[in-house]
C-alpha cells in the first residue's frame, strides 16, 4: 500500500515538473514574440526563407552562394531563394509559373497582363494597400504611381519605381547661342525658336538645310505637347465628376491647330508619320533638326554622339521641362514604374507571414541594401576613391555574376540610393528636371481601371483617333473630319468604353 502511494506520488511530481517546464518554454516563446514587433523578425532565431521569381538579363545570374546575395540575406534577416527567368521570355515563364499553382513568395510581375489580372481576380495575390503605411520606406510611395500600378484602385503589387517626370524638350544649345536666343519659356517662344532654327541658319553653314522639331511615327511628342495646351492625360474629368477622353476636351483642337501650323511652315519634318523611331535622334545629331520632345535622358546620349564626331563642340545640348501655355506649366508623365513585386497567397498563407515579406521588401529600400543589390560589396565589386565610385565588376565577369540582376528586387521607394559615377553637367540637369517635373505632371484619373471593352477593342479605337490626328496635322481632314472620326470611335465601342470607365470610376470613389 505504501509502495503504491509512493509510486503515485512520484508520478504526480514528474507530470507536475513536465507541465512547469512546458509553461516556461511557452512563456519564453511569448516573450520572444513580443520583442519582435510588427514584422515578427527581430527576435526570431530561424530566418524565413523567401522564394523570389525575377527576370535575368544574363545567362549567369547570381547563384545561392553569391557573397552579395548572402550579404543581402544578412541585412534583411531572410534566406533568399532566387528563381530566375530569362527576360526574353519572362511573360511565358510568368504564365507557366501561374498555371503551376506553386507560386513563390514574391513574383516580379512585368505588367498588368490579362493573365496577372485573372490571377488577381482568382485571389492568387495579396491586396497590399492597407499595409504599406506601416513600413518606413513603403509608406513613402508616390500616390500617382500607386494609382497607375493598381488594378481598379487596389494595390496587388509594389511598383518598381522609374522617373515619373521623365519627359521634356531636348534643344541644340549651340544653335541657341549662335542665334543669341534664350531657352523658351512659353509656347509662343517655343514656336519662335523653331522658326528661327528653320529660317536663320543656326549652324552657320550658309545653307537652307535645317528645321526646328523632329518627330517620328511614335506619337509620344504630340501627346506631350498637347498637354501644354491643357489637354488631359488620356482622360479628363468634368465639373460633375464624369470622365471623358482627351480628344473631346475643348483645348484639343487648339493644340492640333498649333501642330498643323508647325507642319505647314516646315518647322517639323514632313515625313514624321512614317519615320522609324529608331532613327528619331539622328537629325538632331547630324545637325539637321534643332529640337526633340522626348525623355530628358536622351539629351546626354545625343550630346555624346555629337561630341564624339566633333570634340571641339563640348556642350551642344541643353534640356528643359516644358513650356507654359494658358493653363500653366504642365507636362505628361510616364507611368512611373516598370513592373511590380506581387506577393502570392500560395506561399504566404497568413497575415503574419505577409508582414515578414513586406518587411523584407521594405528593408530592400534602405541605402545599404540598395547599394548591395545595385553596386555589390565595397572592396570587391567597387571602391570609393577620392569620393568617386570605381566599378571593378564592369570588367570582371566573375564579380559581375555575383550581383548581376539582384537590382531587379529593388523598388527604389522612396528613391534610388544606388551609387552612381560622377555625372557631367547635362546629366545632372536631366536628373534635376525629372525631379522638378513631378510637380507639374498631369495624372490620368483612369490609369488603374481595367476595361473589358478596351481589352477587346482598344487597338482599333486608338487607331481611329491617332490616324485622325495625323490627317488633321498634314491637312487631309478638317474639323468636320475630326468630328466624323470621333463619331466612328463612338460607334465602334467608344460609347461603351466611356460608360464602363465611368462606372469603374464611380465604384473607385466609393
TrEMBL record:
<keyword id="KW-0564">Palmitate</keyword>
<feature type="region of interest" description="Disordered">
    <location>
        <begin position="27"/>
        <end position="46"/>
    </location>
</feature>
<dbReference type="Pfam" id="PF01547">
    <property type="entry name" value="SBP_bac_1"/>
</dbReference>
<dbReference type="InterPro" id="IPR050490">
    <property type="entry name" value="Bact_solute-bd_prot1"/>
</dbReference>
<protein>
    <submittedName>
        <fullName>Extracellular solute-binding protein</fullName>
    </submittedName>
</protein>
<dbReference type="InterPro" id="IPR006059">
    <property type="entry name" value="SBP"/>
</dbReference>
<keyword id="KW-1003">Cell membrane</keyword>
<feature type="compositionally biased region" description="Acidic residues">
    <location>
        <begin position="35"/>
        <end position="44"/>
    </location>
</feature>
<keyword id="KW-0472">Membrane</keyword>
<feature type="signal peptide">
    <location>
        <begin position="1"/>
        <end position="27"/>
    </location>
</feature>
<keyword id="KW-0732">Signal</keyword>
<keyword id="KW-0449">Lipoprotein</keyword>
